[in-house]
Amino acid sequence: MEKPANGKPANEEDNLEEPEEVPKNCEPGASRETMLIAFGSIEEMVEQEMDSSFTEKNVPGSTTSTISEIQDGMQECAVNSEDEGESLVEDAPVPDCESTVTTEASNKTEEVANQDEASTPPEEECWNSMEWRSQKKHIFILSKAGKPVYSRHGNEDKLATIFGVMQALVSFVETNQGDVIRSIHAGDSHFVFLVKDHVILVSVSKTGESVPQLVLQLMYVYNQIVSVLTKTQLTRIYEQRRNYDLRRLLAGAERLLDSLLDLTEREPAFLLGAIRCLPLASTVRDQISNTISSMCCKIKNLVFAILLANNQLITLVRMKKYIIHPLDLHLIFNLVNSSESFKTAESWTPICLPKFDASGYLHGHVSYLADDCQACLLLLTVDRDAFFTLSEAKQKISERLRRNNCLEAINQSVCSEGLTIEQVGVPELRHFLYKAISTAQFTSPALQVPYHTKESAERLMSQYQALHHRLHSPTRPLKLLFYQLETDAMLGWVTSGFELYAAFEPLVTKLNAINAVNKLLRWMKKEEDRLFILQIEPVSSNFKMFLTRSEYDRGVNTFSPEGRLFQVEYAIEAIKLGSTAIGISTAEGIVLAVEKRITSPLMEPSTIKKIVEVDKHIGCAVSGLIADSRTLIDKARVEAQHHWFVYNEKMSVESVAQAVSNLAIQFGDTDDDSGSSMSRPFGVAMLFAGCDEKGPQLFHMDPSGTYIQFDAKAIGSGSEGAQQQLQEVYHKGMTLQEAITHALTILKQVMEEKLNSTNVELVTVTKDRLFHMFAKEEVEEVIKNIA
Q1: N or C: the chain end with fewer CB closer than 10 Å?
Q2: Rounded to whole angstroms, what are the CA distances from 241 to 111, 117, 144?
Q3: Radius of gyration of the CA atoms of the chain, in A
Q4: Are residues 747 and 648 in the same domain?
Q5: Structural domain boundaries, residue 251
Q6: Confidence of residue 3 (pLDDT cuts 50, 70, 90)
Q7: pLDDT above 70 (res 89)
Q8: How many angstroms separate the CA atoms of 59 and 354, rounded?
Q9: Which residues of 554-593 are buried (b: 16+ CB within 10 A; e: fewer)?
Q10: 106 to each of 99, 237, 240, 369, how far by Cα in Å?
Q11: Cβ atoms of 618 and 771 closer than 8 Å
C-alpha cells in the first residue's frame, strides 16, 4: 500500500505545503448545524479499536444507555403533561426489550449446552480446495474459545483447523506476551486481527488494502453482529457459556454480513466514513423534510426518521440533542439493501445502532413509501408498542408527498444517472470523491468510461484506497499528494473542511490538476444545495423555539453557539467568487497582478479598476464586491492624506492597512446617524502594497478585519492554486523582474480566459518609481516573454 498500484509517484517527496484553505464552513457541503457525527480519519478510529487498553468506558456518554435516557425523558414528560391523565408506564408498560431477548438467549443456551459439548469435527476440511484458496480475501469470525461463527467463503465446520490456528495465535500472544495480536504479513498477504471482548475477527487479504482499511471492514462486521444481538446480549451469552455456538442466534444474518462486506469493497462511503445523498432540488428536499417533521411532530418518542433510496440518504429528521453516526446509517442502508421483504409489507423490526446505543434496541417501522416509489422510510422509536401510530404517520406522509409530486421527483433522481463528470465541465477530470467533513457527507459522479467495467472500477477503487492511506498514514500524514500512473494521474487533498480524491488523464501536470480541482470546488459550491443536506429538521415542533441557522444568519453581530459570525464567513466566501489577485514582495519592490473579467464584448475594459493608487508609495489590489472596495479605498486615501497634512510624512503601509481594517469591522444593526458603519461585513479582500521606511511591504486584509503581512499572497477565485504555486517558486532573493514573470505566469494558469493585455492589470511599487501602472504595451511585452 505504500506504493500506488501500477506505478510509482512522479514525485515521491510530494508532501507539498498545505495550500490556502477554503474558509471553514464555507467549503462545498459545509453546514453550521451538526448533521451527522463527524469523526477524524478512519486511522484514528481504527487505532482506538485495536488498542488493547481502549474500552467502551473511555467513550464519553457510553456508560449510560441513551435509549433508557430517552424513555425516562418521555415518561417524565407524560407525568408532567396536563393533557394526559396518566403516564406512559401506567397506560402501556414498556418492558425492557433487551432483557426479553436475553432471556430467550439464555434458554437457548441451556437447551443446546449438551449439543455444543458433544459436537464433533467435520469429516473433511475444505481449505485445500483451489476455489477456496483462489479468493483474494477471506473474513473469519470465531469466539474466544475457538468456536466458528462466520466465514465469508466456505463452510465454517469444514474450516475447523484454520479457526483453531487463529485462536491459538491470539491466545499465544495474549498469554505469553501480554499483548494483542494486530497483523501478520507474509509476502503480499495480510493477516489482520481485531480482538474484541468475546469474539475474534480475522481478515486474510491479498487485495493490497492497508491494515487500517482491513480493520475498518472488520469493525463494520463486528458492529453488524452487535446490531443484530446488542452488545449487552452478546456479553451475557458468553459470560454464561464461553463455548456457546453463536451461529444459532445469527441464523439468517449471514446475508447481512455478506452484503455488508460487498458494500465495503465497492462503496467509497465506508472508506470515507461518510454518507452519500440523493441529488435533489433543495426545494423538493425541504418539502420532504417538512412533511415528515409535521406529520411526526406529535409522536414524542420518535428518535429518527430516515428516508433513503438506492443506498443514498434523501433526508433525516431527528430528535433534537440526538445525532446519528455515519457507521449506524451504513448499517441501516445495508439492512434495507439486503432485505427484499420490506418492499412488500410494513415491517416492525428491532434495530440496534451500535454507535448510538449498543446496549439496546430501537424499534423500527420500515416500509417503502409506495409500490411505485423506490424510497424506503424508517421511523425509529423507543416505544415497542408504537407500530400502528407510526404506520398511520407513514400513510399520511406518503399521501402528502404524492400530492406535492415529491415521489415523482425521487424516482426521477434514482432512475437518472445522477451526477456525471460531464456536468462538472472539467475535461481533464475523470472521476472524484469529495467529502465535506463537517457534515460527514460525500459525493462522486457515476462510473463512466474508462471506469465502466468491473475490472476498471475495482482498479479505481484500489487507487483511491492507496491514495487515502498515504494521505492519512499515521507515520507521515500528508495534506496534498499528486502522482502519475500508467493509466491515471491521482491527486489527494485533505484540509480541515474537506477531503478530495481525484483521478485525471495520465498526462495531466500537477499544476493543471490543482487548477482543475479548484474549478471543481467552485462548481460544487454552486450545486451544494442539490448534492448535500445542509439542514436537518427537528422531529418535534417543540424544538423549534431554539435558534436555527437562518436566525443566526440574520444577526450580523450575533455569535452562534459555536462562536461564529456567519455573515463574516459568508463575506469571505463571496471573495472566492471574485477575480484572482496576486501580490509578491521582493527586495526591490512589490508586484501586483490582477485578473480583469470582461463579461461582455460591449464592456470598456479600461473602466474596470482592480488595482488603485492609495498614495504615491502605496497601491491596493482588490477582489470581491467592487462597491464595497470603493468605500474602503476612499478610507485609505483619506487616512493617508490626513497623515501627510498632520505629520508631514508618508503614512506607513501597515498603518494604512490598520486604518482600513478598523473600518471593516464597523458593521452592525445600529440606528445611529454617524454613517460610519455598514449594516453587514464588507465583501472584499485587499492587498496593500507599498514601500516605506521599513522597505517593501505587502499586507492582506479580509472581511473579518484581520490584516497580516505576507511575502507573497493570492486572493480571489483562483487563490488556492495560485497560493500553492507561490509557495513553490518564492524565495527571498527573488528579483522584481522575476516576480513580474511569476505573477503573470501563475495568473495565466488559474484564469479561465486566455491571458492578454486587456484582461489583466499589472502594477509595481518601488522606492524609485513609486506606484507604476503598466501600460497596455508594457503588459503585452511581458506576456510575450512568458508565452
Answers
A1: C
A2: 12, 11, 11
A3: 31
A4: yes
A5: 98-266
A6: very low
A7: no
A8: 13
A9: eebebebeeeebbbbbbbbbbbbebbbbbbbbbebbbbbb
A10: 10, 7, 8, 38
A11: yes
Nearest CA among 691, 672, 720 for reference residue 614: 691
Domain annotation covers residue 46 = no
CA–CA separation, 41 and 28 (whole Å): 19
Q: What residue has cell string 422509536? A: 381
CA pair distance 763, 144, nearest whole angstrom: 73
651 neighbors 636 (Cβ within 8 angstroms) = no
For 564, the grid coordinates are 461564529
In a domain, 136, yes or no: yes
Same domain, 262 and 287: no
By three-state DSSP, how is residue 282 classified?
helix
pLDDT digits (tens, 9 = 90+) for 552-592: 555 667 777 667 777 888 888 878 888 999 999 999 999 99
Q: What residue type is 43 in one-letter code? A: E
> Which of 76, 56, 52, 78 lies closest to 65 in space, CA to CA?
56
Query: Which contiguous run of DSSP H or E holds residue 141?
Result: strand 137-143
Instruction: Indicate the DSSP class of residue 446.
Output: P
Looking at 297-418, list the stretches that DSSP marks H as alpha helix, in order from N- to C-terminal side.
326-337, 354-357, 387-403, 406-415
SS (H, E, C) 54-77: CCHHHCCCCCCCHHHHHHHHHHHH
Gap between the Cα atoms of 320 and 539, Å rounded: 7
> What is the spatial distance between Cα 135 and Cα 127, in angstroms, rounded to a whole number?
11
C-alpha distances (whole Å) from 53 to each of 169, 223, 398 are 19, 19, 49
Boundary-marking domain end, from 415, 444, 473:
415
Q: Which of 568, 522, 526, 524 is nearest to 719 (CA)?
A: 522
Q: Same domain, yes or no, for 673 and 768?
A: yes
Residue 594 · residue 579 · CB < 8 Å: yes
Residue 263 CA to residue 273 CA, distance in Å, equals: 13
Looking at residue 234, what is its pLDDT?
A: 94
Comparing CA positions, the residue from 291, 293, 286 lying closest to residue 540 is 293
Compute CA distances 183 → 192, 276, 425, whole Å.
Answer: 4, 31, 44
**Cβ 460 vs Cβ 451: under 8 Å:** yes
Tell me, yes or no, whether 369 and 434 share the same domain.
no
The neighbour count for residue 597, using CB atoms within 10 Å, is 16
For 476, half-sphere exposure in the C-beta direction (CA atoms, 13 angstrom radius) is: 10
Q: Three-state SS across 233-245?
A: HHHHHHHHCCCCC
Tell me, yes or no, whether 580 and 716 share the same domain.
yes
Number of structural domains the chain divides into: 4
Residue 558 maps to a domain: no
Q: At residue 219, does pLDDT exceed 70?
A: yes
Global pTM reads: 0.67
- Does the pLDDT of residue 87 top 50, yes or no? no
Helix (H) or strand (E) holding 377: strand 376-381
Is residue 250 situated within a structural domain?
yes
Which residues touch 648 (CB under 8 Å, ≥6 apart)? none
> Does 171 lie in the same domain as 287?
no
Residue 657 CA to residue 619 CA, distance in Å, equals: 11
How many Å apart are CA 553 and CA 544, to the nearest integer? 16
398 and 437 fall within a common domain: no
**Does an H or E element contain 44, and which?**
helix 42-50
CA distance 247 to 159: 15
Q: What is the pLDDT of residue 417?
A: 82
